[in-house]
Amino acid sequence: RATMKSLRFISAEAFVSNAEFARKSLSSIAHNLFPLLFKASYLLEQGEVIHDLVENWPLVDFNMGKLLGTTVDYQQDLSHRTCAVCLESCLTGLRDYVLNHPSPYTKRLKVVDLTGIKDVEVQFCECKKSMGRWARTQLLSKLCLELLVYLQQTQCNPGTFEISIDVLIDLFVTERNYELVVQALLKKCSCPLKICCVSFRSDNLALQKFFYIIKLTDPSLLRKLEIVHNVRLEMEHLEILFNSIHFPRLMSLTLPARTFNVRRFTATDEQMLTNVGEKLGEMTQLTELSMPFSILTGRIQGLLSPLKTPLKKLDVSNCSLNHADMAYLANSFHVNHLEALDLSGHDIPDLYPSTFFKLLSHSSSVLMSLTLEDCNIQDTHVNMLILGLSPCQKLQEFKFLGNPLSSHALKQLFTFLCELPMLKNVEFPVPMDCYPIGITYPIDDASLCRFDHQKYESVAEELKFILLQANREDVKASTPLFGSYDAAVQETNNELGAYLIKSFKEAVEKFTTSLNKMS
């Protein structure tokens, strides 16, 4: 859909489209036109112009989210374009801002905010090459270190050392870029560009390294902490983390699979869980908590009741919750504030149908995202599900992959979903009747793709036609077989794969050694 451009924006596009002329003319451009020219250059992927605009930035702040977001002159949001050409030009321009002397402008820049960039699956830029969060972390760290080396080796203008710019960024650290990022953080005090970590994600990293780097990030500034794949963090490590480091501004926490396992709890572990709950309670700004694939049977209340701020987002997928856990959630003070809830991997219709619908009813006025994957929702439960979802008029996203539903049941459900006015995204399962007779749920990865693809396409078209007839073309309906898109995993999947193979090899070696000892 075309977005209207103002005459000012059309003029800006014409100006930057001739890169050579635009670069020569920057010194005579009014300061307040720089943001307009930046967005126009970004849209046209004029890397050289972007570089020079940033190198000569005349304003106090440079906020990528605001510069690329909806503006008066051009309403289209470009913040989801992680174009490699544009972002590299931006960051090298920032380095050269520090080195540029003499500059036509007084250096006023104090804050650069890169956190507004959104990583998405489909890139609309011409170069078709994106620069994800990991690569941005890598490049900024590299540029900071290069800058320091250059300043130490060159006779620089004394004013250069007085420049101090806070660069707000979402860091993403794995084994592969760990050393580089550590060096950049260690030398932060000496560098004119100060890396300020607002959000930190860690994958494929030894626990010792994670503990070391998290202290370097200045945890007092951290708003989001994601410890996701292949960081072997268990409850005792989490307790040590919370006892040794304070996170006063933390709003969002994601923990790796199997952080908690109550099946092997001792009296000491129970005390540890209480301590962790109390530490979470001290994080007064925490509103998002993800603990997927932990075993938390009967312990949700102990973990969540100390929280003083109601949660807006909760992911307890595949956490083996029992009736007491669900009853606590349905009656807790969090329920009236939950905007996003993931209860995947729980047999909701059989274990606690009435409690679940009570939970839905209480959160219906605010709930925007609901994920019920692999929940054993069958055709006989569809009417009940429709009844439960009916009050959820603010629902924007509904994901229910992996449930044994027929194409007939899906059509019935889609007819209802058309009535939810805010709905934008639906992830639905491959209909059960597209699989061979006798398939068992949850379907294992090996059998997941063994369905009648032609029949599936036919059903998918019928479902989209239901949306079309109801004038709901705004709803995106899809079946991502192996789960929703994760930009971070996509960017580092080679490293993730290598790490998994290494872990598997180590496990086999340990098993072989044990067998040899036995024999």
In a nutshell, what does this entry contain?
The protein is of the alpha/beta class. Helices cover 43% and strands 10% of the residues.
Question: Could you describe the 3D structure shown?
Answer:
By secondary structure, the protein is an alpha/beta fold. Among the domains are: 7-131, no CATH class; 339-344 and 361-484, Leucine-rich repeat, LRR (right-handed beta-alpha superhelix). It is built from 21 helices and 13 strands. A 13-stranded parallel β-sheet has the order 1-2-3-4-5-6-7-8-9-10-11-12-13. Helix 7 (133-153) links the parallel strand 2 and strand 3 (165-173). Helix 4 runs parallel beside helix 6 (84-99), helix 6 (84-99) packs parallel to helix 7 and helix 7 (133-153) crosses helix 8 (178-186). The chain is globular and about 75 Å long. It comes from Caloenas nicobarica. Belongs to the PRAME family. LRRC14 subfamily. This is Leucine-rich repeat-containing protein 14B.
Features:
globular, repeat, LRRC14/PRAME, 519 residues, alpha/beta
Number of helices: 21
Largest sheet: 13 strands, parallel
Number of strands: 13
Query: Could you estimate the helical fraction of the residues in percent?
Result: 40-55%
If you average the pLDDT, what whole number results?
Answer: 92
Measured distance between first and last alpha carbons? 70 Å
Class by helix and strand content? alpha/beta
User: What is the topology, as strand order, of the major beta sheet?
Assistant: 1-2-3-4-5-6-7-8-9-10-11-12-13
CATH topology of the domain at 339-344 and 361-484: Leucine-rich repeat, LRR (right-handed beta-alpha superhelix)
What share of the residues does DSSP label as strand, in percent?
Answer: 5-15%
Low-pLDDT runs of 5+ residues are none
Family: Belongs to the PRAME family. LRRC14 subfamily.
Keywords: Leucine-rich repeat, Repeat
Protein name: Leucine-rich repeat-containing protein 14B
Organism: Caloenas nicobarica
